[in-house]
Amino acid sequence: MTPPIRFDNRVAIVTGAGGGLGRGYALDLAARGAAVVVNDLGGSFDGKGSSTSMADAVVAEIVAAGGRAVASYDSVSTSAGGQAIVKTALDAYGRVDVLISNAGSLRNAPIDELPDDTLDAMIDVHLKGGFNVSRPAFRQMKKQGYGRVVFASSAAGMLGNDQQAAYGAAKAGLVGLMNVLSLEGAAHGIKANALLPTAMSRMSAAMDPKLMEAAGALYAAIGDKLGNSADPAFVTPLVVYLCSEACDSSHSIYSATLGRYARVALHMGAGWVGPRAAPPRAEDVAAHWAEVCEKRGAEEVHSLLGEFELVARRLKAA
Ligand code: NAI
């Protein structure tokens, strides 16, 4: 039988834990013994305004259930906010074992109508938000020789979605951060992964109506098989496992969608090996386009050096 997943003597920071997916992560981690920093700016879905009530409500729920939690109202969008969130954990509990970088807000616009302030807001809260909290957390985890980090990325960035250039690019950028943080953390017992979640929340309710209509039609087509699987609670088990000592995975991307959990990976085709003494012409590339695009024999590549190794192997064999 799988041993129970516990977080006794572990300290977790969950950003954006005042509602939606983050609230579920915080409640479950606390129920499994973690002391939790419940961070939330407490504003609206599009990142406007602030309040203490969202974080306070989740802390009250945790404490009422016999758990340990403190509230943090700092914004992940600034470096000072990120440092203050980590300081809250250190002041209250003396360490940081788990960081779930989950806070976020949503503003959509077609690329040619995307205002600068929307672009800045999305980059600040998602991409810089990931850096602002993970840098101070990483420093502490390195001292401890232990850490688990999960970044909330999105299929909107990793796969694409209309009207979400700013949001999607910021979210895809977090995968770049995760790739490097996991490599640099490996020697220090720090593991990091990225998440592509899907769940109904106040944020998903604000998605492009055309997308929601198409999703509604898909849901209707599967009928009873959908069950309750669009509930945020269905994402929690994967995230909690990724945050646990039991999980060996690092440097990976996982999707949790409608009760289906899957690893998502980038593969590189064997490709076309061109001339070596002088570069080919554009016409040569065009002539070998089918080989360039061939998917058979594609391999997963884990780093920049990994790509060099793959090409070197291919050249040796050619
Ligand atoms: P949500 O809007 O319910 O939760 C986000 C939380 O972050 C809110 O409680 C909000 O107050 C907080 N927040 C916003 N700006 C903040 C800031 N600057 N500092 C601290 N807290 C801040 O949305 P949901 O759906 O729970 O999303 C959680 C994460 O998952 C987000 O990063 C979102 O982009 C991502 N995601 C969600 C998907 C979904 O289907 N719900 C799909 C893909 C990604």
Outline the structure in words:
- The protein has helices at 20-31, 53-64, 79-93, 116-144, 155-158, 165-185, 209-222, 236-242, 282-287, 289-293, 304-317, and strands at 11-15, 35-39, 68-72, 98-101, 147-152, 190-198, 252-257, 260-264, 267-268, 299-300.
- It is α/β, with parallel strands linked by helices.
- The chain folds into 2 domains: 11-264, NAD(P)-binding Rossmann-like Domain (Rossmann fold), CATH 3.40.50; 267-317, Helix Hairpins, CATH 1.10.287.
- Helix 1 crosses helix 8 (236-242), helix 3 runs parallel beside helix 4 and helix 4 (116-144) runs parallel beside helix 6.
- The N and C termini lie far apart (48 Å).
- The mean pLDDT is 96.
- 1,4-dihydronicotinamide adenine dinucleotide binds next to helix 1 and strand 6.
